[in-house]
Design brief:
With 333 residues, the chain is mainly beta. The protein is 0% helix and 46% strand. It folds into three domains: 3-118, Carboxypeptidase-like, regulatory domain (Immunoglobulin-like); 123-214, Immunoglobulins (Immunoglobulin-like); 219-322, Immunoglobulins (Immunoglobulin-like), CATH 2.60.40.10. Strands 18, 21, 22, 25 and 26 form a five-stranded mixed β-sheet that branches. Strands 1, 6, 9 and 10 form a four-stranded mixed β-sheet that branches. Strands 5-2-7-8 form a four-stranded antiparallel β-sheet, with no helix packed on it.
Length: 333
């Protein structure tokens, strides 16, 4: 009786960036050999249409040979299982075993005309939005996609990076099956870096994972200690300090700058203003303590670190000192 030798070859799409496809994944694939019509085996056993005759596994090179002794007839090969990173193929590959004449002892059939049957990777995407505390979009943030075991979140270590647009949107396309991290690498100017690590799990082809990343505004405080220039351990009360926002960002106090208010004297000689947003400010004494000389200087403070209190001094290491008023004493006898 004429014999048949059926062989097949499988290939996998690879992704070097994510390290998928060259780690033995092909050995997780199996095929089924099915009858494409009702058949009778050499032993007389009836084989129903779509009956499973053999489960085929692959070697490390993606090749396999059918071991079942097949009678003449029509069959098909179909993928039963694949590696988790890949799309399972539902395609049926026909195998037709016809009598090839008495001179042929074994008919050789290569499934798919000998061409490798390729599995495509499962790819999803991430659709993100970068917003401020009020939900408004923020542009210019750098976001990274990382392996799920990463602990160092830098541009150099990221698998992919994206920059948020003016409306705050960002995206990562062609993210393979698996678990990944999303983390902000660089925040927009004036905002606090969001160090939250966001989990992304891609499990289906063309899946879209949506993420919103919120940045808080940088806020800082201005404070000063008012002292007697001659006795710096003596704190002075009754001064008034005006605080201006550098509205035109020219680094100089001028008529375009906004007066925000005055420092609050929390206790004797201790003045402060809290929760000022990122940017440049000017502090100017508008009223000196009684019997002391007004300091007419303008003192710049640039708030760029969240939660920091910036101390204003006119005498380094001593505080904000005022000279006592002096006059001439004339004695007539």
């Amino acid at each position: 009786r004429q014999k048949v030798e059926v062989s097949l070859e499988k290939s996998l799409e690879t992704n070097e960036l994510f390290g998928i496809g060259n780690n033995g994944e092909i050995k997780n694939i199996s095929f089924g050999l099915f009858a494409d019509e009702e058949l009778v085996s050499a032993s007389g056993t009836s084989i129903p249409k779509d009956g499973l005759l053999e489960i085929i596994t692959l070697d490390e090179n993606g090749r396999a040979t059918v071991g079942t002794d097949l009678p003449l007839g029509s069959y098909y090969v179909k993928e039963l299982a694949t590696d988790e990173h890949y799309q399972l193929s539902g395609e049926k590959y026909p195998v037709v075993f016809e009598y090839a004449g008495q001179e042929t002892a074994t008919v050789v059939i290569a499934v798919n005309d000998g061409e490798p049957m390729e599995n495509k990777l499962i790819y999803g995407s991430v659709s993100g939005k970068k917003v401020d505390e009020n939900g408004e979009g923020l542009g210019g943030a750098i976001i990274g996609l990382f392996k799920s075991d990463d602990v160092e979140f830098t541009e150099e270590n990221a698998l992919m990076t994206a920059v948020s647009g003016d409306d705050g949107s960002f995206a990562f396309e062609n993210v393979p099956y698996g678990s990944w991290y999303i983390r902000e690498i660089k925040q927009p100017t004036g905002f606090v870096l969001d160090e939250t690590v966001y989990d992304v799990n891609i499990s289906e082809n063309e899946q879209v994972v949506e993420i919103e990343i919120v940045n808080k505004l940088v806020r800082g405080n201005i404070a000063l200690t008012k002292v007697d220039a001659e006795y710096t351990d003596t704190k002075l009360t009754g001064a008034v300090f005006e605080v201006y926002k550098d509205s035109n960002d020219n680094g100089e106090l001028d008529s375009e700058d906004e007066l925000l208010g005055t420092l609050t004297e929390k206790e004797i000689g201790q003045y402060e203003m809290n929760d000022l947003l990122y940017g440049r400010y000017f502090v100017k004494e508008s009223k000196a303590p009684e019997d002391f000389v007004l300091d007419e200087g303008v003192y710049e403070v640039f708030i760029d670190t969240d939660g920091k209190t910036y101390q204003v001094e006119n005498t380094e290491g001593k505080g904000f000192a005022n000279e006592p008023m002096r006059g001439n004493l004339k004695i007539v006898k």
